[in-house]
Amino acid sequence: MDIILVPGLWLDASSWERVVPALEAAGHRAHPLTLPGMGSEDADRSGVGLRDHVDAVVAAIDACGPAKVLLVGHSAGCGICHAAVDARPDRVARAVYVGGFPTGDGGTLAEDFPAEDGDVPLPDWSAFGPEDLTDLDDEALARFRERALPSPARVVRERQRLSDERRYDVPVTAVATEYTTETLRGWIASGAEPVREFTRLRVDHVDLPTGHWPQLTRPDDLARVILDAAASG
């Protein structure tokens, strides 16, 4: 099966490097993506918008041929994947949302992070809660910051535009990381805006207790979750 891996903010395809081997060892074809504007520190991100990232994922789906794909998004990448599902609902067997939510029509991915000259740089670690940083020691945090790239501000601030309700027919695996499945279910039940799309989706919930970046902290366990989703997809 073709498995498309979409990183969250500040990360490129290399962020999946410890997950990909297990997927390929199981016989799948893994496609970790570096999204537009995320190729280097010096890339021009000023003209890169949300639709550019969505279109890049759609292009990856189209390049995989006629068989359905498994689409995996991390954090803000979940919203990007959800828009790609909206664009290609007949080509996605299942979506896996890791530590993030399927952003609905009119929503934004992460508009609260401060921007500088059209970029959203990785903020100071104090901007994150201790639960986000679980299993990342000082050395791991230093490596993360060294590899981190600014994300395009327009990507996180532009409004999501969705139009095909067949997106709700695509089953979803929601992977709870720095929060629990029980907490997520509570947010959904309360009608919280960031998770509202979940109320219309067929969702399997999986707990993977760690920080916000399981591809860095628990890559083998995340790979197993993705393989299970591929099997059920």
Automatic annotation (TrEMBL):
<feature type="domain" description="AB hydrolase-1">
    <location>
        <begin position="3"/>
        <end position="224"/>
    </location>
</feature>
<dbReference type="InterPro" id="IPR000073">
    <property type="entry name" value="AB_hydrolase_1"/>
</dbReference>
<dbReference type="InterPro" id="IPR029058">
    <property type="entry name" value="AB_hydrolase_fold"/>
</dbReference>
<dbReference type="InterPro" id="IPR052897">
    <property type="entry name" value="Sec-Metab_Biosynth_Hydrolase"/>
</dbReference>
<keyword id="KW-0378">Hydrolase</keyword>
<protein>
    <submittedName>
        <fullName>Alpha/beta hydrolase</fullName>
    </submittedName>
</protein>
<dbReference type="Pfam" id="PF12697">
    <property type="entry name" value="Abhydrolase_6"/>
</dbReference>
<dbReference type="GO" id="GO:0016787">
    <property type="term" value="F:hydrolase activity"/>
</dbReference>
